[in-house]
């Protein structure tokens, strides 16, 4: 399976690596001796133990045979397979999702793509299916659809979405899917707890070009902000920095069209896909 420059955050992958280290150490083997005994390279063993590589089924079975563990490593490998869709998420995103589910308010600015809470199933499949095996892609689709229930659950949070027009016009998939996606945005915009506006395209610079971000508000706690850069998720809790995101969001809403004007623009773009 895959390997990373940085350790995977997925608990199942980390647990597998820790167990390999524990059993190897208990057997009195260094990594080179262990690798030679199993027929692998010391570099591969090091990658597994540091949770930078995902073990294969064959490797897990070889470990069980070598250590006589009655299937311990195979069971851990199965756990990795069952949860590996989480391993492809940006580091920091899992913690963000926990906070998102608790939030009373969300303020979202989205530059490049339609935000995950607004995506249709077909749009999601295009986004998350890129470079993923079918099973992992389907789990990611199901997880995102489940996450979207936050918008319609009992005691749903108040959510403001501000989208760059480019996110609407970026045809990442077929015209019919894009038309369906924009119709879905219009429908969600009719929910009493959801507000959607659009920053129209213009040839000059505006602060939103710096990147997408989300702010979460809580009744009994301070706001937090979340952004992603180069595949890394960053959950920001330092009040001064969170405050700067709040100022930026308010500024961006000043650049956006009014809600009804935004709906008219979304409708116009949707018709262009027809």
UniProtKB/TrEMBL annotation:
Instruction: Report the Pfam families cross-referenced here.
Output: DUF5753, HTH_31
Q: Which domain of life is it from?
A: Bacteria
Q: Can you give the residue ranges of the HTH cro/C1-type domain? A: 20-74
Q: Could you tell me what this protein is called?
A: Helix-turn-helix transcriptional regulator
Q: Which Gene3D superfamilies match?
A: lambda repressor-like DNA-binding domains
Read off the PROSITE patterns from this record.
HTH_CROC1 (PS50943)
InterPro entries documented for this protein:
Cro/C1-type_HTH, DUF5753, Lambda_DNA-bd_dom_sf
